[in-house]
From TrEMBL:
Functional note: Catalyzes the attachment of tryptophan to tRNA(Trp).
Transmembrane stretches, start-end: none
Species assigned in the record: Compostimonas suwonensis
This protein's name: Tryptophan--tRNA ligase
Pfam families the UniProt entry points to: tRNA-synt_1b
UniProt keywords, alphabetically: Aminoacyl-tRNA synthetase, ATP-binding, Cytoplasm, Ligase, Nucleotide-binding, Protein biosynthesis
Enzyme class: ligase
Binding locations of ATP: 11-13, 20-21, 149-151, 188, 197-201
Matching Gene3D superfamilies: HUPs, Tyrosyl-Transfer RNA Synthetase
The enzyme's E.C. designation: 6.1.1.2
Length: 330
């Protein structure tokens, strides 16, 4: 095909995805899979850079795959697979480690943040080399487009630097990928702490809307979302972060402009606005939740889909790896 090659992925770091993963990643993946030759990975090798429970990780991986499909990633059109099923990821990562500067890797701000949280002695070499594995993920597939959040921009830059370095030392091998950074309204904040990004790994889950929450739980979380006492439904990220976040969610899920939603709720209080939002979120997530649970009831079928897709990914990845090995003398 002459469609641009797209690669993206998510860690299986919880048993449910959260609404930010849906709005910031899955929704745009679903749209982009139409015009791109897309690979979507569940990056379990990345997930083990922090301590994991083996049974839980295996379960989370399957659940993440089911949620990708339920949210609209079509495994017969896109390649949806589990990273560790394709050994070339770890093999290319090793090669790229050998051309990555120690200082260069040490400048990655995400490593600095994560290792500061874990404590310098607890952080592993795997956590340090995380961005190099990510570079391998992307470069293996001759990826042109990588849809990511702003926090991944530096990792894509590193990927381009490593590709350029390898190409100039060993001959033209890798395609230089472009980051496609998410828009500001696609960034969702914690409902209880609306200046912090909503995250699967947030310490408190009170302000996190999970895709697999029961409808009544979702509604309750939205009704309890932190707002302000100005009582006007108006977008102002600085002065009104809570209301602005709810407006972003409303706008993306209804495919309506923020203006038109402000107009609709101009005369009503926050109660009516939140109630409308809760109904909207439940109407979007309820079918996704039902479909996910249905797929999890048939693990053999899900495993069959993942194995077929991993075989497709492996075909491309092995070609790149073979070229790399040839070029470097292995
Ligand atoms: P999490 O913080 O939930 O663990 P990840 O860091 O694994 O999420 O990111 C997975 C994908 O979801 C990425 O593409 C990321 O940009 C997107 N994403 C995560 N949280 C949000 C959010 N709060 N708003 C928008 N997009 C998000
Ligand atoms: Na995370």
């Amino acid at each position: 095909t002459n469609k641009p090659r797209l690669y993206s992925g998510m860690q299986p770091s919880s048993d449910s995805l959260q609404i930010g993963n849906y709005i910031g990643a899955l929704l745009s993946w679903k749209r982009m899979q139409e015009e791109c030759d897309a690979l979507f990975s569940i990056v379990d090798l990345h997930a083990i850079t922090v301590p994991q429970d083996p049974a839980q990780l295996r379960e989370n991986t399957r659940r993440t795959a089911a949620q990708y499909i339920a949210a609209g990633i079509d495994p017969s059109r896109s390649t949806l697979y589990v990273q560790s099923h394709v050994p070339a990821h770890a093999e290319l990562a090793w090669v790229l480690n050998t051309i990555t500067g120690f200082g260069e890797a040490g400048r990655m701000t995400q490593f600095k943040d994560k290792s500061a949280k874990q404590g310098a002695d607890a952080a592993s070499v795997g956590l340090f080399a995380y961005p190099v594995l990510m570079a391998a993920d992307i470069l293996l597939y001759r990826t042109e487009v990588v849809p990511v959040g702003e926090d991944q921009r530096q990792h894509i830059e590193l990927t381009r630097d490593l590709a350029t370095r390898f190409n100039s030392r060993f001959g033209d091998t890798f395609v230089l990928p472009e980051a496609r950074i998410l828009t500001e309204t696609a960034k969702i904040y914690d409902l209880q702490n609306p200046t912090a990004k909503m995250s699967k790994s947030a310490e408190s889950h009170a302000g996190v809307i999970w895709l697999l929450d029961e409808p009544s739980v979702t509604a309750k979380k939205i009704m309890r979302a932190v707002t302000d006492d100005d009582a006007s439904v108006r977008f102002d990220r600085e002065a009104k972060p809570g209301v602005s976040n709810l407006l972003s969610i409303y706008s993306v899920l209804s495919e309506r402009s923020v203006d038109s939603i402000e107009d609709e709720f101009a005369a009503s209080g926050y109660g009516a606005f939140k109630k409308g939002l809760a109904e909207l979120v439940v109407s979007v997530f309820e079918p996704i939740r039902a479909r996910t649970l249905e797929m999890l009831d048939d693990p053999a079928e899900l495993d069959r889909i993942l194995a077929g897709n991993a075989a497709r990914a492996q075909e491309i990845a092995d070609q790149t790896l073979q070229t790399v090995y040839d070029r470097i003398g292995l």
